[in-house]
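Appendix B, record 7
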Amino acid sequence: MTAPLRSAKLWCGLLVLAASQTGVALAQVPQPAGPAAVGDQPSAVQPPSGDAALLGSLPIPPGAKIISDQSLIIGSGDAWVGRLTLDVGRDVTEAYKYFMDAFQGQGWTLQSAVRSKTSLLVFTHNGRSATIEFQDTPKLVGGAIVTLTMAPLGSVSRY
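Structure tokens (predicted):
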């Protein structure tokens, strides 16, 4: 068996195991509610209805729109893993500052910060790693697109 095939089987097994351990199947991510002014303070926006525990205490900018067809959440609460893609409704500089302040305010430790055409923040907390990627979009489309990838520390993916 080739290394990529072995890696793919391992990841599939881990995804099934994670879903079975949490009792949650692969989930569509709900949309956060409510518009937000650019100057709003960092807070954890909880998804509406009975899915309030899906993202746990993850800080999401008020008014951010989850791009569900580009998001994959496995698990729930503060133990979920996967990818969350957001249109944050603000420019890259404001989004970068929001996530920097909000994650550090919740006890996440900054491991790496890169400011460039595609900016990145990497945080760790309680055995988890969060990588936040920022991509600017044309002003007519909306705000920056932010992709947050959450994984357990020490997990390795080889393609």
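Remarks on this record: The chain has a mean pLDDT of 72. The first strand starts at residue 65 and ends at 66.
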